[in-house]
Amino acid sequence: MYDMTRTPSIAAALVLLLSAPFASAIDNAPVNALSSTAVMRPALPAGAAALKVDDYKETDVWGRIRSGYAIPDISNNLVERHTRSYSLKPDYMARISGRASPYLYHVVQELEKRGMPTELALLPVIESAFNPQALSTANAAGIWQFVPGTGKDFNLKQNTFKDERRGVLASTDAALTYLQRLYAMFGDWQLALAAYNWGEGNVQKAIKKNQALGKPTDFESLADLMPAETRNYVPKLQAVKNIVGNPGQYNVTLPVIDNQPYFTAVDKTSDIDLAIAAQLAEMSVDEFKALNPQFKRPVITGDDRTKILLPQKNAEKFQLNLAQFGQALSTWTTHKITGAKESIASLASKFGTTPEIIRQANNIPAQTRLKAGSTILVPKTSASLHSDIAENIVDSAVMALEADRGEKRGGARTQRFKTKAVANSGKRILRGTSSTRKHR
Questions:
Q1: Exposure pattern of 276-297 as b/e (b: 16+ CB <10 Å)?
Q2: Where are the domains of the chain?
Q3: What is the mean pLDDT of residues 113-120?
Q4: Phi-psi domain of 271 (left: phi exceeds 0; alpha: psi -120 through 50; beta: other)
Q5: Angle at the Cα of 323 (from 322 to 328), degrees rounded to 5?
Q6: What's the mean pLDDT in 225-250?
Q7: Would the N or C end of the chain have less CB density within 10 A of its end CB?
Q8: How far is C-alpha 437 from the chain's CA centre?
């Protein structure tokens, strides 16, 4: 496994400082030369000890990614085609870069901590276009596109209230752990990437097939045995790697992403409404959701281990405003439906709200009703004002819907619906193929 640290050795740092032509050559070299030249270290020049190590520091995350390239390059028609395709869409690349900017520093930092190739930070470009709300038709979610079963394998909680496949911290940790496991299995990053997309079992079968025929088992030799999406997967990453390695060569301008943390994690000590959390942080709800996309309901529940992410400048505001708030942090509690007589209209009347608010808080479509056993959010009453939603309720709550029997459907049998959390419970779904994945 490639080994690198965020801070270069003293000697290497001083060498790079005093070797501007050498550094410039690296920046302008073709991408297939970056992997080797980035780790070269010329002899230490005389007088170099007079310089400070702190004088050498990447100021842009893109440069930091380039300096850690370590996966062997491939060059073929697919790479050329995808490189050309991305380079001809500068607006698209700029949009993805904008989406990536809050997350990229964290991803790179975690890669470096594990000694992993930093171009893996570009993988969400291929997976999700860095959109944490991306959801494929195979129900793969988040920037790393975990399907429910694989998410559970890596302890990503998925319940009515949150989906950690979308959370930046949890999903990045899971994705890098998964990639490390695949690399340990295959000893090759390109095959590990193919397995991330296609499944390790499929890659193992392809390897055995080529071995039986006396053929090589590297990625390009196995490509003809792979589905189209997997066959294009590594070439797409190589294409993005090429552009990030030398954007000027491809007439692409990458927005500057500062080489410093964008967000910090803040402990949550009790239930808090998402809107109140955003208010205390002096952020819009949309800005707050961009960093905390795992929360699916208007209240953030969970034990004390649940954290919220805030930009560095807003975290201090949050703490100051929280200390002075003096009001209930959460206005929601749960209610379990016991029978058909509990309609959304009757619940709205009971809890002093409107049917529309209950539907919106619980993502209940129009012309559907709740089935007995469903647990939903309702406004707090005076009796529940100072109590949090119990953790066992958070973990076990389900919601099942059926067509509203008050709607006439020409005698058609009532169609029943379930939420995605219920529909996918206990069921494993393999990673989608090109016909089932959607990243827009």
A1: bbbbbbebeeebbbbbbbbbbb
A2: 59-250, 263-325, 332-423
A3: 98
A4: beta
A5: 60
A6: 97
A7: C
A8: 15
48/54 Cα distance (integer angstroms): 13
Question: How far is residue 111's CA from residue 5's CA, in Å, rounded to a whole number?
Answer: 9
DSSP state, 8?
P
Tens of pLDDT, residue by residue over 133-183, are 999 999 999 999 999 999 999 999 999 999 999 999 999 999 999 999 999
pLDDT in tens, 86-107: 999 999 999 999 999 999 999 9
What is the CATH code for 59-250? 1.10.530.10
The per-residue DSSP string of 31-96 comes to HHHHHHHTT--PPPPTTGGGS-GGG---SBHHHHHHHT--SPP--SHHHHHHHHHHHT-HHHHHHH
Residues contacting residue 34 through CB under 8 Å, at least 6 positions apart: 26, 66, 69, 245
Of 196, 204, 199, nearest to 175 (Cα)?
196
How confident is the prediction for the chain on average, in pLDDT? Answer: 83
Just list the catalytic residues. 127
Helix H or strand E segment including 266: strand 263-267
Vertex 68: Cα angle to 67 and 74 (nearest 5)? 105
The two three-digit tokens of residue 132, written as one number? 């944490």
